[in-house]
Each structure stands twice: as structure tokens, then as C-alpha cells.
Design brief:
The structure is a single chain. By secondary structure, the chain is of the alpha/beta class. It has helices at about 40-45, 70-75, 90-100, 105-120, 135-145, 165-180, 195-200, 215-220, 240-245, 270-280, 295-305; strands at about 1-10, 15-25, 30-35, 55-60, 65, 75-80, 155, 185-190, 200-205, 210-215, 225-235, 250-255, 260-265, 285-290. It has 2 domains: about 1-220, P-loop containing nucleotide triphosphate hydrolases (Rossmann fold), CATH 3.40.50; about 225-295, Alpha-Beta Plaits (2-Layer Sandwich). The strands form 3 sheets. It has a 6-stranded mixed sheet, with helices on both faces. Helix 3 crosses helix 4. The chain starts with a strand and ends in a 6-residue tail after the last helix. Bound molecules: adenosine-5'-triphosphate (ATP) and magnesium ion. The site of adenosine-5'-triphosphate (ATP) has 13 residues, from strand 2 and helix 1. Adenosine-5'-triphosphate (ATP) binds near residues 14 and 40.
Length: about 300
């Protein structure tokens, strides 16, 4: 298990990482979700011992990685936020280069390169120069480079930013597969909540250097469990109906569209016993209703007062 304990990194007067605690166990996918400048990449640079912390420690199997970086480097793969590849080399040549500096034994390297090219779906393009690759293909090769030494832990820093939807979905599927088949533990950094929802068993939400929420998806959404949002569908509605609805004290955040109205109520409110008589009184047909789950975006908004994306 990797543990991050009271990790802090200051850049002059910026607290980029502020007393962060987190852990990742073998075989799980953990999300690190946060807006621009939250401190995600700095946390990753600290875990991968590329920079030194101002305070705190990173432990692997309960031993300090800061004092002994090799402990973790052998079992950790890192996919950096910025793509780092040689554009005048082919995919195969790039992997050859990275495998050599990672000191993968000569006898194993060709086999690993072939396996990785398959994992990231670049077998057919392996002889093409990287300068002719799309940004999605470059991202995939960047991921491949981090997988060559078969790391038990993989950290990915926003691997789907700025690429086409097809490559994005390929990458998300490849991550799931890597986790399920090779049991690779993954820290997945993103500011796309839907990716984190799709991939992760647990997540941390980071903002301004601090972890502001942690837990499973259910636990994090339960932060908002005192309320629920209801969408009702109507055949039509009238001005007098809407007026009557907006005077109901039980309802808040009322939003009105053509044939659909949404509102928030306290979790245990029996909203139907209020809405149905109102519809009847105004001769309005209720065609259906739907209780909406809170999203991570709602939680982030609740905790910080800001939207997750700029
Ligand atoms: N080398 C550095 N020198 C000075 N400040 C830095 C340095 N690296 C990061 N910072 C600052 O630390 C804070 C956290 O940056 P970081 O790159 O870790 O955020 P992030 O969550 O990865 O953001 P993004 O989503 O934009 O990648 C920011 O305010 C950033 O400007
Ligand atoms: Mg970053």
C-alpha cells in the first residue's frame, strides 16, 4: 500500500499541497478530482519523488519513500500530464528508449513492447513516426511507456485532456482492463467527474492544496443526502399552477422548463402528496417524475461554492 502522510509542498508563498493524507491499496482505482491549480500534479510529483516535500512523507509498505525513492520507483508507473515523447522516433523506438532507461532486461524488452503496443491499441501504427500521430495516439503511447515495467501501481495525470472522444473512450476502457486483468492499482487524476464516476472505487476531492472530501462515490454523494432533487413531467402547465408551486415552502431551487419542472426538497419529504393535489386543482396531468441522484459536481459546488470546471 502507498500512504501519503501530512504531505505539504510550498512554492514560495503558494501552498500547492497542504497537509494531504491519502492512501491506495493494491488493486484499487482511486480518483483524485480537482479543478485547475488544486495541487493534483504537485501531489503526483511528490509521490513519484520527482520533487521533495516541504513537510510530510510518502510511505510504501510502511517505509519512507522520500528517504529511499527506489523502494517505490520499481513498482510505480507515472503518466505525466504533459506528453513526453520523441517525435522523430516511431512508437516502437520510443518504447525501446524508455524501456532501456528503465533498465528492463534486454531479453524481456521486445516482449514487453509488443504487449504494451497491444494494450494501448497502437500495434498497427507502431512503425509510424510519432510526429504523425494524433494527440490521442500520443497520449496512448505515453501511457504505454509507463506500463513497460509492469508496475503494480500506476499514477495517471489527466490522461484524457485535449483528445478526441474515441481515444478517450479507448483509454478509459484500457484502464479498466488493466485494473481487472493485471490487478494494477491506479491513481486517476482528472477534473472530469464522469470519468472518475466511471472508473473509481474511491475518490479524493482536492481544492486549493487540501483534500476536502474522501470516500466511495456513495459516501461522497451522501454529503448531500439531506436533500433530493425531483423532476416532474407535465403535459403542460399554466401560470397559476407555477405561481401556486412557487409559494410552496417545502420546495426550493425550482426550475421551470416547457413540460418539465425540477425542484429540491428535504430527503424525507413526501412530495407527491403535495404535488398531486396541486395538479388536480389546476387541471394539470402529471405524466411522470424522477428523483435525481446528486452528482459529484453538486457535491463540489456544495463544499466550495464553485463549479468544478472553469
Ligand atoms: N514549480 C512551481 N513553482 C511555483 N508554483 C507552482 C509550481 N508548480 C505548481 N505551482 C503552483 O501550485 C499550485 C498547484 O499546481 P498543480 O499543477 O499541482 O495543480 P493541478 O491540480 O495539477 O492543476 P491542473 O488541473 O491545472 O493541472 C498552483 O497554484 C500552481 O501555480
Ligand atoms: Mg495538473
Amino acid at each position: 500500500m502507498i500512504e501519503v502522510v501530512n504531505l505539504t509542498k510550498n512554492f514560495k508563498n503558494i501552498k500547492a499541497v497542504d497537509n494531504v493524507n491519502l492512501y491506495i491499496e493494491p488493486g484499487e482505482i482511486v480518483g483524485l478530482l480537482g479543478p485547475n491549480g488544486a495541487g493534483k500534479s504537485t501531489t503526483i510529483a511528490l509521490i513519484s519523488t520527482l520533487i521533495q516535500p516541504t513537510a510530510g512523507d510518502v510511505l510504501f509498505q510502511q517505509q519512507s519513500v522520500i528517504n529511499n525513492p527506489k523502494l517505490l520507483r520499481d513498482v510505480l508507473g507515472v503518466v505525466p500530464q504533459e506528453v513526453a515523447l520523441y517525435k522523430d522516433l516511431t512508437a516502437r523506438e520510443n518504447l525501446q528508449f524508455f524501456g532501456t532507461i528503465q533498465k528492463i532486461p534486454k531479453g524481456e524488452l521486445q516482449g514487453r513492447i509488443n504487449a504494451v503496443l497491444k494494450q494501448v491499441g497502437l500495434e498497427d501504427d507502431r512503425k509510424k513516426l510519432v510526429k504523425y500521430y494524433s494527440s490521442g495516439m500520443r497520449r496512448r503511447l505515453n501511457i504505454g511507456a509507463a506500463l513497460l515495467h509492469k508496475p503494480a501501481y500506476l499514477i495517471m495525470d489527466e490522461p484524457t485532456v485535449g483528445i478526441d472522444p474515441q481515444s478517450r473512450s479507448y483509454i478509459l476502457q484500457a484502464i479498466k482492463q488493466l485494473n481487472q486483468e493485471d490487478k494494477t492499482a491506479i491513481i486517476y487524476t482528472s477534473h472530469y467527474m464522469e470519468e472518475v464516476e466511471f472508473l473509481c472505487d474511491r475518490l479524493y476531492i482536492m481544492d486549493q492544496g487540501k483534500i476536502i472530501a474522501a470516500g466511495t462515490m456513495e459516501e461522497i454523494k451522501a454529503i448531500l443526502s439531506s436533500e433530493k432533487t425531483i423532476e416532474i413531467k407535465l403535459e403542460r402547465h399554466s401560470k397559476s399552477f407555477v405561481e401556486a408551486l412557487t409559494t410552496l415552502k417545502l420546495l426550493s431551487n425550482i426550475q421551470i422548463a416547457e413540460a418539465q419542472i425540477s425542484f429540491t426538497v428535504e430527503k424525507n419529504t413526501d412530495f407527491l402528496s403535495v404535488i398531486l393535489p396541486l395538479c388536480e386543482a389546476h387541471n394539470i396531468v402529471l405524466k411522470g417524475f424522477h428523483v435525481k441522484e446528486p452528482t459529484l459536481e453538486d457535491v463540489f459546488l456544495h463544499l466550495t461554492g464553485r463549479a468544478l470546471r472553469d
